[in-house]
From TrEMBL, chain A:
One of its GO terms (cellular component) is plasma membrane. The keyword Transmembrane helix applies. This is ABC transporter permease. It comes from the Archaea. It comes from Halorubrum glutamatedens. Keywords: Membrane, Transmembrane, Transmembrane helix. The lineage of its organism: Archaea, Methanobacteriati, Methanobacteriota, Stenosarchaea group, Halobacteria. The keyword Repeat does not apply. The chain crosses the membrane at residues 12-34, 76-96, 117-143, 155-178, 190-207, 235-256. Pfam families: ABC2_membrane_2.
Amino acid sequence: MSETARYEVERRIRGSIVLTAAISLYSAFIVWYFTVLEGVNTEEVFEELPPAMVDAFGIESLSTIEGFLGAQIFNFVWLLGLGLYFAYMGGGIIASEIESERIDVLLSFPISRSQLFLEKFASILFPILVVNTVGGVAIYGLVLAVDESIDLTHLLLAHVLSIPYLLVCAGIGGVFSVAVNRTSVAEKGAVGVVFVLYLIESIVGGADEYDWIQYLSPTQYYEPTPVLIDGTFEFIDSAILLVTLLGLLLLGQIIFSRRDL
Amino acid sequence: MNGMAKIDLDGLTKDYGGVIANDQLSFRVESGEIFGYLGPNGAGKSTTIRMLLGLLKPTGGTARVLGADIRDEKSLIEAKKRIGYLPAHLGFDDGVTGERVLEYHAGMKGDSRLHELLEIFTPPIERPVREYSTGNRRMLGLIQAFMHDPELVIMDEPTSGLDPLKQEEFNEFIRAERDRGTTIFFSSHVLSEVRRVCDRVGIIRQGRLVELEAVETLLTRSGKRVRIHAADEVIPQLSALDGVVDESTFPGGVQFIYTGEINRLLRELARYDVHDIDIKEPPLEDVFIHYYGERTEEKSNQWNPNNE
Protein backbone atom coordinates (compact mmCIF):
# COMPACT_ATOMS: atom_id res chain seq x y z
CA MET A 1 0.00 0.00 0.00
CA SER A 2 1.39 3.36 -0.83
CA GLU A 3 2.03 6.22 1.58
CA THR A 4 -1.07 8.31 0.92
CA ALA A 5 -3.49 5.38 1.09
CA ARG A 6 -1.80 4.16 4.28
CA TYR A 7 -1.96 7.58 5.86
CA GLU A 8 -5.62 7.98 4.94
CA VAL A 9 -6.51 4.49 6.21
CA GLU A 10 -4.92 5.29 9.57
CA ARG A 11 -7.11 8.33 9.83
CA ARG A 12 -10.18 6.23 9.14
CA ILE A 13 -9.53 3.60 11.81
CA ARG A 14 -11.38 5.33 14.62
CA GLY A 15 -14.42 6.16 12.49
CA SER A 16 -14.56 2.60 11.18
CA ILE A 17 -14.56 1.17 14.71
CA VAL A 18 -17.36 3.49 15.82
CA LEU A 19 -19.41 2.75 12.71
CA THR A 20 -18.98 -1.00 13.08
CA ALA A 21 -19.83 -0.92 16.77
CA ALA A 22 -22.98 1.09 16.10
CA ILE A 23 -24.13 -1.27 13.36
CA SER A 24 -23.39 -4.33 15.48
CA LEU A 25 -25.47 -2.90 18.32
CA TYR A 26 -28.31 -2.14 15.96
CA SER A 27 -28.08 -5.68 14.58
CA ALA A 28 -28.22 -7.07 18.11
CA PHE A 29 -31.38 -5.08 18.71
CA ILE A 30 -32.95 -6.35 15.46
CA VAL A 31 -32.07 -9.99 16.15
CA TRP A 32 -33.48 -9.70 19.68
CA TYR A 33 -36.60 -8.05 18.30
CA PHE A 34 -37.06 -10.96 15.90
CA THR A 35 -37.30 -13.32 18.87
CA VAL A 36 -39.90 -11.06 20.47
CA LEU A 37 -41.99 -11.04 17.31
CA GLU A 38 -42.02 -14.83 17.02
CA GLY A 39 -45.58 -16.03 17.16
CA VAL A 40 -46.92 -12.74 15.87
CA ASN A 41 -48.09 -13.05 12.30
CA THR A 42 -45.95 -10.32 10.81
CA GLU A 43 -47.08 -11.05 7.30
CA GLU A 44 -50.51 -9.84 8.29
CA VAL A 45 -49.16 -6.64 9.79
CA PHE A 46 -47.52 -5.70 6.53
CA GLU A 47 -50.43 -6.66 4.33
CA GLU A 48 -51.95 -3.33 5.23
CA LEU A 49 -49.01 -1.42 3.79
CA PRO A 50 -49.18 -0.08 0.21
CA PRO A 51 -47.39 -2.43 -2.22
CA ALA A 52 -44.97 0.34 -3.25
CA MET A 53 -43.75 0.66 0.32
CA VAL A 54 -43.34 -3.09 0.74
CA ASP A 55 -41.32 -2.97 -2.45
CA ALA A 56 -39.28 0.04 -1.35
CA PHE A 57 -38.18 -1.60 1.87
CA GLY A 58 -37.66 -4.96 0.28
CA ILE A 59 -40.04 -6.57 2.71
CA GLU A 60 -40.38 -10.15 1.54
CA SER A 61 -40.86 -12.69 4.21
CA LEU A 62 -40.57 -11.25 7.63
CA SER A 63 -41.41 -14.41 9.50
CA THR A 64 -38.05 -16.01 8.67
CA ILE A 65 -34.81 -14.73 10.15
CA GLU A 66 -33.36 -14.25 6.65
CA GLY A 67 -36.29 -12.16 5.48
CA PHE A 68 -36.33 -10.18 8.70
CA LEU A 69 -32.60 -9.40 8.58
CA GLY A 70 -32.86 -8.60 4.88
CA ALA A 71 -35.51 -5.98 5.49
CA GLN A 72 -34.40 -4.55 8.81
CA ILE A 73 -30.63 -4.67 8.50
CA PHE A 74 -29.60 -5.07 4.90
CA ASN A 75 -32.19 -2.90 3.18
CA PHE A 76 -32.17 -0.28 5.88
CA VAL A 77 -28.56 -0.19 6.95
CA TRP A 78 -26.51 -1.57 4.08
CA LEU A 79 -28.47 -0.37 1.10
CA LEU A 80 -29.70 2.97 2.40
CA GLY A 81 -27.69 3.89 5.50
CA LEU A 82 -24.25 2.78 4.40
CA GLY A 83 -24.91 3.83 0.81
CA LEU A 84 -25.52 7.37 1.98
CA TYR A 85 -22.68 7.20 4.51
CA PHE A 86 -20.08 6.22 1.94
CA ALA A 87 -21.41 8.73 -0.59
CA TYR A 88 -20.88 11.34 2.12
CA MET A 89 -17.40 10.04 2.86
CA GLY A 90 -16.50 10.08 -0.84
CA GLY A 91 -17.66 13.69 -1.05
CA GLY A 92 -15.03 14.68 1.49
CA ILE A 93 -11.90 13.11 0.00
CA ILE A 94 -10.68 16.01 -2.13
CA ALA A 95 -13.10 18.86 -1.36
CA SER A 96 -12.01 18.91 2.28
CA GLU A 97 -8.37 19.22 1.22
CA ILE A 98 -9.22 22.10 -1.08
CA GLU A 99 -11.34 23.88 1.50
CA SER A 100 -8.67 23.60 4.20
CA GLU A 101 -5.91 24.49 1.69
CA ARG A 102 -4.07 21.28 2.57
CA ILE A 103 -4.16 20.51 -1.14
CA ASP A 104 -1.17 22.85 -1.66
CA VAL A 105 1.07 20.65 0.42
CA LEU A 106 -0.35 17.40 -0.96
CA LEU A 107 0.30 18.47 -4.53
CA SER A 108 3.82 19.64 -3.71
CA PHE A 109 4.55 15.94 -3.30
CA PRO A 110 5.96 14.13 -6.33
CA ILE A 111 2.63 12.46 -7.04
CA SER A 112 0.11 12.96 -9.82
CA ARG A 113 -3.36 14.28 -9.15
CA SER A 114 -4.81 11.02 -10.45
CA GLN A 115 -2.79 8.99 -8.01
CA LEU A 116 -3.70 11.24 -5.11
CA PHE A 117 -7.37 10.90 -5.99
CA LEU A 118 -7.23 7.13 -6.40
CA GLU A 119 -5.28 6.54 -3.20
CA LYS A 120 -7.58 8.71 -1.16
CA PHE A 121 -10.54 6.95 -2.70
CA ALA A 122 -8.99 3.54 -2.03
CA SER A 123 -8.81 4.32 1.67
CA ILE A 124 -12.62 4.16 1.76
CA LEU A 125 -12.30 0.46 1.05
CA PHE A 126 -11.00 0.04 4.59
CA PRO A 127 -14.20 0.98 6.47
CA ILE A 128 -16.22 -0.89 3.85
CA LEU A 129 -14.25 -4.07 4.53
CA VAL A 130 -14.26 -3.63 8.31
CA VAL A 131 -17.97 -3.02 8.55
CA ASN A 132 -18.71 -6.01 6.33
CA THR A 133 -16.28 -8.39 8.00
CA VAL A 134 -16.86 -7.49 11.63
CA GLY A 135 -20.53 -6.68 11.06
CA GLY A 136 -21.02 -9.98 9.23
CA VAL A 137 -19.37 -12.01 11.99
CA ALA A 138 -21.44 -10.16 14.58
CA ILE A 139 -24.71 -10.83 12.74
CA TYR A 140 -23.86 -14.52 12.34
CA GLY A 141 -22.93 -14.82 16.01
CA LEU A 142 -26.09 -13.02 17.10
CA VAL A 143 -28.30 -15.26 15.00
CA LEU A 144 -26.68 -18.37 16.53
CA ALA A 145 -27.01 -16.87 19.98
CA VAL A 146 -30.80 -16.74 19.71
CA ASP A 147 -30.91 -20.35 18.52
CA GLU A 148 -31.80 -19.44 14.96
CA SER A 149 -29.76 -20.39 11.91
CA ILE A 150 -28.83 -18.68 8.70
CA ASP A 151 -27.01 -20.02 5.66
CA LEU A 152 -23.42 -18.89 5.99
CA THR A 153 -22.83 -18.73 2.23
CA HIS A 154 -25.90 -16.58 1.73
CA LEU A 155 -24.85 -14.20 4.48
CA LEU A 156 -21.33 -14.05 3.08
CA LEU A 157 -22.72 -13.29 -0.39
CA ALA A 158 -24.95 -10.52 0.93
CA HIS A 159 -21.86 -8.86 2.38
CA VAL A 160 -19.53 -9.43 -0.56
CA LEU A 161 -22.09 -8.17 -3.08
CA SER A 162 -22.55 -4.99 -1.06
CA ILE A 163 -18.92 -3.98 -1.67
CA PRO A 164 -19.28 -2.94 -5.35
CA TYR A 165 -22.52 -1.16 -4.46
CA LEU A 166 -20.97 0.80 -1.61
CA LEU A 167 -17.95 1.66 -3.77
CA VAL A 168 -20.25 3.11 -6.43
CA CYS A 169 -21.93 5.27 -3.78
CA ALA A 170 -18.49 6.43 -2.63
CA GLY A 171 -17.55 7.01 -6.28
CA ILE A 172 -20.51 9.36 -6.75
CA GLY A 173 -19.16 11.23 -3.74
CA GLY A 174 -15.67 11.18 -5.26
CA VAL A 175 -16.86 12.92 -8.41
CA PHE A 176 -18.59 15.62 -6.35
CA SER A 177 -15.44 15.93 -4.29
CA VAL A 178 -13.25 16.99 -7.20
CA ALA A 179 -15.90 19.13 -8.85
CA VAL A 180 -16.60 21.58 -6.02
CA ASN A 181 -14.49 23.51 -3.53
CA ARG A 182 -16.64 23.18 -0.46
CA THR A 183 -16.75 20.00 1.56
CA SER A 184 -20.33 20.44 2.70
CA VAL A 185 -21.53 20.98 -0.86
CA ALA A 186 -19.75 17.85 -2.10
CA GLU A 187 -20.99 15.72 0.79
CA LYS A 188 -24.58 16.91 0.60
CA GLY A 189 -24.61 16.69 -3.18
CA ALA A 190 -23.43 13.08 -3.13
CA VAL A 191 -25.86 12.08 -0.39
CA GLY A 192 -28.67 13.84 -2.24
CA VAL A 193 -27.96 12.08 -5.51
CA VAL A 194 -27.77 8.61 -3.96
CA PHE A 195 -30.93 9.22 -1.94
CA VAL A 196 -32.90 10.57 -4.89
CA LEU A 197 -31.81 7.62 -7.04
CA TYR A 198 -32.92 5.27 -4.27
CA LEU A 199 -36.34 6.94 -4.07
CA ILE A 200 -36.76 6.98 -7.83
CA GLU A 201 -35.94 3.30 -8.04
CA SER A 202 -38.49 2.51 -5.33
CA ILE A 203 -41.22 4.62 -6.88
CA VAL A 204 -40.96 3.80 -10.57
CA GLY A 205 -40.58 0.08 -9.83
CA GLY A 206 -44.30 -0.32 -10.34
CA ALA A 207 -44.86 1.97 -13.34
CA ASP A 208 -44.18 0.12 -16.60
CA GLU A 209 -43.84 3.15 -18.82
CA TYR A 210 -40.98 4.67 -16.87
CA ASP A 211 -39.46 1.56 -15.43
CA TRP A 212 -36.20 2.16 -17.32
CA ILE A 213 -35.45 5.00 -14.90
CA GLN A 214 -34.91 2.54 -12.08
CA TYR A 215 -31.86 1.19 -13.90
CA LEU A 216 -30.08 4.49 -13.25
CA SER A 217 -29.95 3.83 -9.55
CA PRO A 218 -27.13 1.78 -8.04
CA THR A 219 -29.63 0.40 -5.55
CA GLN A 220 -31.17 -1.50 -8.46
CA TYR A 221 -28.07 -3.70 -8.65
CA TYR A 222 -27.82 -4.83 -5.05
CA GLU A 223 -30.75 -6.76 -3.64
CA PRO A 224 -29.72 -8.35 -0.36
CA THR A 225 -33.00 -9.95 0.71
CA PRO A 226 -33.24 -12.60 -2.05
CA VAL A 227 -29.55 -13.33 -1.55
CA LEU A 228 -30.14 -14.01 2.14
CA ILE A 229 -33.26 -16.08 1.59
CA ASP A 230 -32.13 -18.41 -1.19
CA GLY A 231 -28.81 -17.13 -2.47
CA THR A 232 -30.15 -15.79 -5.78
CA PHE A 233 -28.33 -12.93 -7.42
CA GLU A 234 -27.24 -11.84 -10.89
CA PHE A 235 -23.57 -11.65 -11.77
CA ILE A 236 -24.39 -8.98 -14.30
CA ASP A 237 -25.60 -6.67 -11.51
CA SER A 238 -22.21 -6.69 -9.82
CA ALA A 239 -20.49 -6.32 -13.19
CA ILE A 240 -22.61 -3.24 -13.95
CA LEU A 241 -21.67 -1.75 -10.57
CA LEU A 242 -17.96 -2.37 -11.15
CA VAL A 243 -18.05 -0.83 -14.62
CA THR A 244 -19.93 2.17 -13.20
CA LEU A 245 -17.28 2.46 -10.49
CA LEU A 246 -14.51 2.54 -13.09
CA GLY A 247 -16.43 5.18 -15.04
CA LEU A 248 -16.88 7.34 -11.95
CA LEU A 249 -13.22 7.03 -11.00
CA LEU A 250 -12.15 7.95 -14.51
CA LEU A 251 -14.49 10.93 -14.55
CA GLY A 252 -13.19 12.02 -11.15
CA GLN A 253 -9.59 11.83 -12.34
CA ILE A 254 -10.34 13.80 -15.50
CA ILE A 255 -12.14 16.58 -13.64
CA PHE A 256 -9.45 16.74 -10.96
CA SER A 257 -6.56 16.80 -13.42
CA ARG A 258 -8.03 19.57 -15.53
CA ARG A 259 -9.10 22.01 -12.93
CA ASP A 260 -7.35 24.88 -11.17
CA LEU A 261 -6.95 24.56 -7.44
CA MET B 1 21.79 21.75 -13.26
CA ASN B 2 24.66 24.14 -12.79
CA GLY B 3 24.53 27.23 -14.92
CA MET B 4 20.87 26.69 -15.59
CA ALA B 5 18.20 28.90 -14.04
CA LYS B 6 16.29 27.07 -11.30
CA ILE B 7 13.14 28.96 -12.17
CA ASP B 8 12.60 30.50 -15.57
CA LEU B 9 9.37 32.37 -16.27
CA ASP B 10 8.60 33.03 -19.89
CA GLY B 11 5.62 35.31 -20.42
CA LEU B 12 3.73 33.53 -17.65
CA THR B 13 0.14 34.75 -17.64
CA LYS B 14 -2.97 33.93 -15.65
CA ASP B 15 -6.10 35.57 -16.90
CA TYR B 16 -9.22 34.95 -14.83
CA GLY B 17 -11.38 36.52 -17.50
CA GLY B 18 -11.42 40.19 -16.64
CA VAL B 19 -8.83 40.00 -13.90
CA ILE B 20 -5.28 39.37 -15.03
CA ALA B 21 -3.63 37.96 -11.93
CA ASN B 22 -0.27 37.51 -13.66
CA ASP B 23 0.52 39.46 -16.79
CA GLN B 24 3.33 38.13 -18.99
CA LEU B 25 5.85 37.62 -16.24
CA SER B 26 9.37 36.86 -17.40
CA PHE B 27 12.32 36.49 -15.07
CA ARG B 28 14.84 33.94 -13.89
CA VAL B 29 15.92 32.71 -10.51
CA GLU B 30 19.54 31.65 -10.69
CA SER B 31 21.16 28.73 -8.97
CA GLY B 32 22.25 29.40 -5.40
CA GLU B 33 20.56 32.73 -4.83
CA ILE B 34 17.90 33.96 -2.48
CA PHE B 35 15.31 35.61 -4.66
CA GLY B 36 12.69 37.82 -3.05
CA TYR B 37 9.34 38.10 -4.78
CA LEU B 38 8.01 41.33 -3.45
CA GLY B 39 4.60 42.87 -3.84
CA PRO B 40 1.65 44.23 -1.89
CA ASN B 41 -1.13 41.89 -0.84
CA GLY B 42 -3.20 40.88 -3.82
CA ALA B 43 -0.46 41.67 -6.35
CA GLY B 44 -0.46 38.13 -7.72
CA LYS B 45 2.46 36.56 -5.83
CA SER B 46 0.60 33.46 -4.71
CA THR B 47 -0.82 33.01 -8.20
CA THR B 48 2.71 32.81 -9.61
CA ILE B 49 3.83 30.37 -6.93
CA ARG B 50 0.77 28.19 -7.38
CA MET B 51 1.36 28.11 -11.14
CA LEU B 52 5.00 27.14 -10.59
CA LEU B 53 3.82 24.16 -8.53
CA GLY B 54 1.20 23.09 -11.04
CA LEU B 55 -1.81 23.94 -8.87
CA LEU B 56 -3.01 26.53 -11.38
CA LYS B 57 -2.68 26.26 -15.13
CA PRO B 58 -1.29 29.27 -16.97
CA THR B 59 -3.51 30.87 -19.59
CA GLY B 60 -0.48 32.12 -21.50
CA GLY B 61 3.28 31.67 -21.52
CA THR B 62 4.96 29.09 -19.34
CA ALA B 63 7.71 28.56 -16.84
CA ARG B 64 10.37 26.00 -16.13
CA VAL B 65 11.11 24.81 -12.64
CA LEU B 66 14.34 22.81 -12.30
CA GLY B 67 14.12 22.38 -16.05
CA ALA B 68 10.57 20.99 -16.03
CA ASP B 69 7.86 22.73 -18.01
CA ILE B 70 5.04 23.45 -15.57
CA ARG B 71 2.45 22.47 -18.17
CA ASP B 72 3.88 18.96 -18.29
CA GLU B 73 2.58 17.16 -15.19
CA LYS B 74 4.93 14.21 -15.55
CA SER B 75 8.15 16.16 -15.71
CA LEU B 76 6.97 18.57 -13.00
CA ILE B 77 6.34 15.58 -10.71
CA GLU B 78 9.93 14.44 -11.31
CA ALA B 79 11.15 17.95 -10.45
CA LYS B 80 9.04 18.07 -7.29
CA LYS B 81 11.27 15.45 -5.72
CA ARG B 82 13.89 18.18 -5.56
CA ILE B 83 11.60 21.05 -4.55
CA GLY B 84 10.59 22.11 -1.06
CA TYR B 85 7.45 24.18 -0.60
CA LEU B 86 6.17 26.23 2.29
CA PRO B 87 2.67 27.50 1.49
CA ALA B 88 1.25 30.74 2.90
CA HIS B 89 -1.44 28.86 4.72
CA LEU B 90 -0.08 25.82 6.47
CA GLY B 91 -2.62 23.07 6.09
CA PHE B 92 -1.88 20.11 8.30
CA ASP B 93 -4.34 17.55 9.54
CA ASP B 94 -5.23 18.75 13.02
CA GLY B 95 -5.95 15.33 14.38
CA VAL B 96 -2.55 13.73 13.81
CA THR B 97 0.74 14.36 15.60
CA GLY B 98 3.55 16.41 14.09
CA GLU B 99 5.55 13.20 14.02
CA ARG B 100 2.95 11.45 11.85
CA VAL B 101 2.81 14.45 9.50
CA LEU B 102 6.59 14.30 9.08
CA GLU B 103 6.50 10.53 8.65
CA TYR B 104 3.99 10.94 5.83
CA HIS B 105 6.14 13.63 4.22
CA ALA B 106 9.20 11.40 4.62
CA GLY B 107 7.42 8.59 2.83
CA MET B 108 6.47 10.89 -0.02
CA LYS B 109 9.73 12.71 -0.63
CA GLY B 110 12.49 11.57 1.72
CA ASP B 111 13.92 12.73 5.04
CA SER B 112 17.70 12.84 4.69
CA ARG B 113 17.94 16.04 6.74
CA LEU B 114 15.12 15.48 9.19
CA HIS B 115 17.23 14.83 12.29
CA GLU B 116 19.44 17.79 11.65
CA LEU B 117 16.42 20.06 11.19
CA LEU B 118 14.75 18.80 14.34
CA GLU B 119 17.77 20.11 16.24
CA ILE B 120 17.25 23.61 14.85
CA PHE B 121 13.46 23.69 14.92
CA THR B 122 11.73 22.18 17.89
CA PRO B 123 7.98 21.88 17.50
CA PRO B 124 6.43 19.39 19.96
CA ILE B 125 6.21 16.62 17.37
CA GLU B 126 4.68 14.09 19.74
CA ARG B 127 1.59 16.28 20.16
CA PRO B 128 -1.37 16.62 17.78
CA VAL B 129 -1.06 19.52 15.35
CA ARG B 130 -4.35 20.87 16.72
CA GLU B 131 -2.47 22.04 19.83
CA TYR B 132 0.25 23.89 17.92
CA SER B 133 0.83 27.62 18.21
CA THR B 134 1.37 29.64 15.05
CA GLY B 135 5.12 29.52 15.64
CA ASN B 136 5.10 25.74 16.04
CA ARG B 137 3.11 25.34 12.85
CA ARG B 138 5.67 27.52 11.05
CA MET B 139 8.50 25.37 12.37
CA LEU B 140 6.76 22.20 11.25
CA GLY B 141 6.26 23.84 7.86
CA LEU B 142 9.94 24.75 7.56
CA ILE B 143 11.02 21.24 8.54
CA GLN B 144 8.83 19.65 5.88
CA ALA B 145 10.04 22.14 3.26
CA PHE B 146 13.72 21.31 3.83
CA MET B 147 13.67 17.72 5.13
CA HIS B 148 14.35 16.03 1.80
CA ASP B 149 17.33 18.27 1.03
CA PRO B 150 15.74 19.99 -1.98
CA GLU B 151 17.67 21.96 -4.60
CA LEU B 152 15.01 24.64 -4.66
CA VAL B 153 12.74 25.86 -1.89
CA ILE B 154 9.69 27.97 -2.69
CA MET B 155 8.09 29.83 0.20
CA ASP B 156 4.94 31.92 0.16
CA GLU B 157 5.07 34.69 2.79
CA PRO B 158 7.22 32.58 5.11
CA THR B 159 7.70 35.17 7.82
CA SER B 160 4.20 36.53 8.15
CA GLY B 161 3.25 36.26 11.80
CA LEU B 162 6.81 35.82 13.04
CA ASP B 163 8.07 38.25 15.67
CA PRO B 164 11.26 40.19 14.76
CA LEU B 165 13.51 37.89 16.76
CA LYS B 166 12.16 34.76 15.09
CA GLN B 167 12.40 36.54 11.78
CA GLU B 168 16.09 37.13 12.32
CA GLU B 169 16.56 33.44 13.16
CA PHE B 170 14.71 32.58 10.00
CA ASN B 171 16.97 34.89 7.98
CA GLU B 172 20.04 33.25 9.50
CA PHE B 173 18.67 29.87 8.57
CA ILE B 174 17.96 30.63 4.95
CA ARG B 175 21.31 32.35 4.49
CA ALA B 176 22.97 29.18 5.76
CA GLU B 177 20.80 27.15 3.38
CA ARG B 178 21.87 29.32 0.48
CA ASP B 179 25.50 28.91 1.48
CA ARG B 180 25.16 25.15 1.25
CA GLY B 181 23.84 25.57 -2.28
CA THR B 182 20.05 25.64 -1.97
CA THR B 183 18.22 28.09 -4.19
CA ILE B 184 15.50 29.98 -2.37
CA PHE B 185 12.52 31.78 -3.83
CA PHE B 186 10.21 33.49 -1.42
CA SER B 187 7.41 35.98 -1.58
CA SER B 188 6.84 38.82 0.81
CA HIS B 189 5.03 42.11 1.11
CA VAL B 190 7.59 43.53 3.52
CA LEU B 191 10.44 45.43 1.95
CA SER B 192 12.72 45.32 5.00
CA GLU B 193 12.42 41.57 5.07
CA VAL B 194 13.53 40.94 1.54
CA ARG B 195 16.27 43.48 1.60
CA ARG B 196 17.86 42.00 4.68
CA VAL B 197 18.15 38.56 3.23
CA CYS B 198 17.67 38.49 -0.54
CA ASP B 199 20.34 38.60 -3.20
CA ARG B 200 17.90 39.75 -5.82
CA VAL B 201 14.36 41.01 -5.79
CA GLY B 202 11.54 40.98 -8.29
CA ILE B 203 8.72 43.38 -7.63
CA ILE B 204 5.20 42.59 -8.75
CA ARG B 205 2.32 44.97 -8.67
CA GLN B 206 -1.16 44.35 -10.05
CA GLY B 207 0.08 41.23 -11.77
CA ARG B 208 2.97 42.91 -13.55
CA LEU B 209 6.65 42.76 -12.94
CA VAL B 210 7.63 46.34 -12.26
CA GLU B 211 11.25 45.91 -11.21
CA LEU B 212 13.94 43.34 -11.16
CA GLU B 213 16.70 44.58 -8.97
CA ALA B 214 19.73 43.69 -6.99
CA VAL B 215 19.09 44.40 -3.33
CA GLU B 216 21.63 47.21 -3.12
CA THR B 217 19.91 49.16 -5.86
CA LEU B 218 16.56 48.67 -4.25
CA LEU B 219 17.97 49.74 -0.92
CA THR B 220 19.14 53.06 -2.20
CA ARG B 221 15.98 53.63 -4.14
CA SER B 222 13.39 52.84 -1.56
CA GLY B 223 14.23 55.67 0.80
CA LYS B 224 13.35 56.18 4.43
CA ARG B 225 10.35 57.66 6.03
CA VAL B 226 11.62 60.45 8.28
CA ARG B 227 9.52 62.11 10.91
CA ILE B 228 11.06 65.12 12.65
CA HIS B 229 9.88 67.24 15.52
CA ALA B 230 11.58 70.59 15.30
CA ALA B 231 11.08 74.31 15.76
CA ASP B 232 8.67 75.78 13.17
CA GLU B 233 11.27 77.95 11.45
CA VAL B 234 13.47 74.93 10.72
CA ILE B 235 10.80 72.96 8.88
CA PRO B 236 10.90 74.76 5.51
CA GLN B 237 14.68 74.32 5.38
CA LEU B 238 14.40 70.59 6.10
CA SER B 239 11.71 70.20 3.45
CA ALA B 240 13.97 71.87 0.92
CA LEU B 241 16.72 69.23 1.23
CA ASP B 242 17.68 67.27 -1.87
CA GLY B 243 16.07 63.86 -1.96
CA VAL B 244 13.03 64.83 0.06
CA VAL B 245 9.75 63.75 -1.46
CA ASP B 246 6.19 63.63 -0.29
CA GLU B 247 6.68 65.91 2.65
CA SER B 248 3.79 66.80 4.88
CA THR B 249 3.84 69.00 7.92
CA PHE B 250 2.05 68.51 11.18
CA PRO B 251 1.97 70.76 14.26
CA GLY B 252 5.55 70.95 15.49
CA GLY B 253 7.11 68.85 12.79
CA VAL B 254 7.42 67.43 9.30
CA GLN B 255 7.33 64.00 7.74
CA PHE B 256 8.86 63.01 4.39
CA ILE B 257 10.41 60.25 2.39
CA TYR B 258 14.16 60.76 2.09
CA THR B 259 15.74 59.10 -0.90
CA GLY B 260 19.22 60.63 -0.70
CA GLU B 261 22.33 59.48 1.05
CA ILE B 262 21.70 58.94 4.75
CA ASN B 263 24.91 60.56 6.07
CA ARG B 264 24.07 63.74 4.28
CA LEU B 265 20.70 63.84 5.95
CA LEU B 266 22.34 63.36 9.34
CA ARG B 267 24.87 66.15 8.69
CA GLU B 268 22.11 68.48 7.63
CA LEU B 269 20.01 67.63 10.64
CA ALA B 270 22.93 68.30 12.96
CA ARG B 271 22.87 71.92 11.93
CA TYR B 272 19.36 72.46 13.23
CA ASP B 273 17.63 72.21 16.55
CA VAL B 274 15.79 68.91 16.28
CA HIS B 275 13.60 67.78 19.22
CA ASP B 276 12.88 64.26 18.12
CA ILE B 277 13.39 62.09 15.10
CA ASP B 278 12.02 58.81 13.86
CA ILE B 279 13.45 57.13 10.78
CA LYS B 280 11.88 54.01 9.41
CA GLU B 281 11.01 52.14 6.33
CA PRO B 282 8.11 53.39 4.24
CA PRO B 283 5.21 50.98 3.61
CA LEU B 284 5.65 49.11 0.36
CA GLU B 285 2.58 50.59 -1.27
CA ASP B 286 3.93 54.10 -0.55
CA VAL B 287 7.22 53.19 -2.18
CA PHE B 288 5.35 52.00 -5.24
CA ILE B 289 3.26 55.12 -5.46
CA HIS B 290 6.39 57.22 -5.38
CA TYR B 291 8.38 55.29 -7.87
CA TYR B 292 5.84 54.00 -10.27
CA GLY B 293 3.06 56.50 -9.88
CA GLU B 294 -0.43 56.04 -8.59
CA ARG B 295 -1.33 53.71 -11.42
CA THR B 296 0.94 51.17 -12.99
CA GLU B 297 -0.67 50.80 -16.36
CA GLU B 298 2.70 50.85 -18.00
CA LYS B 299 5.75 48.93 -17.10
CA SER B 300 8.05 51.59 -15.79
CA ASN B 301 11.67 50.75 -15.62
CA GLN B 302 12.74 54.33 -15.35
CA TRP B 303 13.03 55.52 -11.85
CA ASN B 304 11.92 59.06 -11.36
CA PRO B 305 11.10 60.36 -7.92
CA ASN B 306 9.33 63.36 -9.35
CA ASN B 307 6.99 61.59 -11.67
CA GLU B 308 3.90 62.17 -9.59
